[in-house]
Fold CRISPR-associated protein, Csx3 family.
Amino acid sequence: MMLTFVGAGSPTIIAHNLQYNKPAPAHTTGHDMILSQHSTFVHPMNPIELKIIPNQTQDGLAYQHLRLRITTQDGIITPDDLQGLKLPQNVQLSQGIVIEGRGAIWLYGYLVHECHPAAWVGCYDPRLEGAVVVATHKHEVSVGQVLKLSLPSD
C-alpha cells in the first residue's frame, strides 16, 4: 500500500496497491478512502462526510467534535448511505464526542451507536448553544446535561 498526495491547498491522499502499481480497487475495504489534512473521512461513494475536530467546552472539558456534512447537491441521503460509513480513524475514545451537523434522525442514531465506546456522547443543539449528553461512561458528565460550547471552525 502506498499513499499519494494530490491537489493544492488541502492535500488529498489516495491509496495505491503497490503490487500492481495502480489505484486500489473500489471494493478494497479500509483502503478506498480519501483523507484531508483536517481528519476528514470520506468514502468516495458515500455522501456523508465526517470530520473530527479537537475542542473544549466553555468550562474547559476537552472533547472530540464530530462534524457531519451531507455532500449531495440536494442534501438528501438514503439509509443505504450508512453502509460502509465509519468514524474517522483518529477519534480519541478516551474523550467525549459531540455530534453536530444537519442529518436524518436515523443517521444520528447510527453515529451515537458508533460513538458509544467513547467516554461520553452528546448531540449539539443550536437552540441550547451546547451539546446534550445522551450517553456516558464517566462521572464527569451526566445524561441530560447541557455542555455549553462554541462551535469549532473548520
